[in-house]
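Pipeline run #58 for the internal structure catalog. This entry was flagged by the ingest filter as a single-chain record with no existing model, so it goes straight to prediction. Upstream metadata was stripped on purpose; only the residue string is passed forward. Reviewer on rotation: M.T. Logging verbosity set to normal.
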Amino acid sequence: MVRKLKHHEQKLLKKVDFLDWKQDQGHRDTQVMRTYHIQNREDYHKYNKICGNIRKIARKLALLQPNDPFRIKHEQLLLDKLYGMGVLATKSKISDLENKVTVSALCRRRIGVVMCRFKMAETISDAVKFVEQGHVRVGPDVITDPAFLVTRNMEDYLQWTDGSKIKHNLLNAEEILFSFDSYEDDNINVFLNTYTLRDGYYHGPGSEDSDTLSRLEIMVKKYDSNRILSNILYQELIFNLSSVDRPPKSECGWFGCGSNKVEYVDIEPIKISNKVYDYKDHQLVNVRILYYQLVHFGIQVGFYGSKFVVVVNHMEDEIFLANEMSSESEEHPGWSRVIEDHESWIITILSMVFLAMAAGTMYVLVLFNNLLTNRASRHKGRNWTDDEKQRLIREFFKR
C-alpha cells in the first residue's frame, strides 16, 4: 500500500496514468481471452507473436520488385497457407494481411470455436469441456487440447468419438414427422417437412421441453450443353417454429379458426447448409461443402391457420408448400408410446413375472397332489389275503 501523494507530487504527476499502461493495449488480451475462452495467457502472446512474424514477412516481400519471381512465388505460398489454415476467408491480396491476420482470426480456428460454429455445442465454454473430457476427435485422433487449431480441410473430419455419451444420445434422438410436402421438376426440387425430436423419452407437441422444427431443402439442377446433369446445388434451412413469439390462440391454429389468409412472419433459420454435388456421366463423383450461398432464393415463411407455409421464389418459379404444425396421433401417445420407449425393461419384468407364476403353479400342484395322496391313504382299508382272514377268525373264536 503506497502512501498518498502530496500536493506538489500530484501536480507533477497529474498527466501520468498509473492504472492503464501502454503495453496493456487497453486490456485487449483480457477481452480476447474472455471472448474465445482462452485459459492460458501464453496462448494469446503466442498468437500475437505469430501475427507479428507474418506481417514482418509480408513487409519484407513488399520491398521487392512487383515482377520479382521470388516475391510472386512466396506471396502466393503465404496466402495459400493462411487460407488453408482458415485465417483468411478468401485468397486476398498480400496488402490485406496487415488488417486481416489478427489474434482473433487465429482464435476463431480453435477447436472449441469451430465446434460452436458447427452447432456441436451451445457455448465455447461447453465445447472446451467436451474437448477436455475426450468427446471430440479429428479424424482418428482424439483431441484433448482446447488450443488445437482446426484447418479448413480438417473441418469435415471433426466428429464425436465413438464411445462418447453425447454421440450415443444424438444417435438415439428420433425425428417424429408431422407433415411433408414437396415440389419437383427438371430444374428445381423443394422439400418441406415439419417434425419434433425426442431422445429416450417422449416429448410430445404439448411438452414444454420439445421444439417443433421445419426443414426446407432446395435442390437446383445444372445441366451442360448436352442436357446432361453436371451439378446439383443443395441448400438446407432449419426453422425453429417454437421460437415464434405468437402462441396458438385455439385448437384451430396459431391465428384462430377464422384466419383465411397467410400471415408472414420473420423467422431466421437456426441452421443453413450449402453443398454442391458434382456429377460425371450420370454418376456422383464429388461433394463439396460451401460456406457461402451460390444460388439466392426468395423465401417467405408464414402461417395459414394450423399450417406452416413456405413460398420459394427462384427465377420465374414461385413454389408454395404447406405443412401441418402437429400430428393428432402424436398428441396423446398413451401406453403404446410408453411400451415402445421401455420395451426391453417391460419384456424383462414380464419374463420374471411369468417365471414366478410358473414356479408358484408347480409348487401348488405338487402340494395338492401330496394332500390328496395322504387323504386317500387314511381312508383306504388294508387289502387282507385269505390266509390272514382265516387266522384272524380263529384267534377271535379262541377268545
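catalog note: The two ends are 133 Å apart (CA to CA).
catalog note: Residues 174-333 form one domain.
status: ready for reviewer M.T.
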